[in-house]
C-alpha cells in the first residue's frame, strides 16, 4: 500500500521560509516522479511544482517560480518543497502526489493527506 505523508507546515509571517517534506512508502520511490499541489479555502487545487524521478528536471507554477524549490532524496524516499519569501497568498493546504510531473492532478495516482501552511501579513 502506497502512503505519502507530508510534514513541515505551520504558521509564519510574510517573508519567512518553510520546508515541506513528503515521505513515501509502499513503492520504489526512485522510479516515480513527484509533485506538489495546494488548495486554498474556496479555491480549486492548483499545481505548485514537480520533479522527475531522476531529479534532473523540475517544473514550477509561475506564481512560485524563483521562491520555491522542489528537490528529492531517493535514499530517504522523500521529496521536499523549500518555500522562501512566503506571501499571504501562499496560504493553503499543501499536498504531495506521486506518479507524474503533469500540472493536472488527474495524472497522479497517490496523494498525501496534506499539511497546512498559513502566512500572515
Q: How does this model look, in words?
A:
The protein is an all-beta fold. Helices cover 0% and strands 49% of the residues. The chain has no helices and 11 strands.
In short:
The protein is an all-beta fold.
Essential attributes:
single chain; 121 residues; mainly beta; 4-stranded antiparallel beta sheet; 0% helix; 49% strand; globular
Strand content: over 45%
State the helicity in percent bands.
under 10%
Unreliably modeled segments:
none
| N-C termini distance | 40 Å
Major sheet: size, sense and barrel closure? 7 strands, mixed
Specify the number of helices: 0
Helix-strand sequence:
EEEEEEEEEEE
Structural class: mainly beta
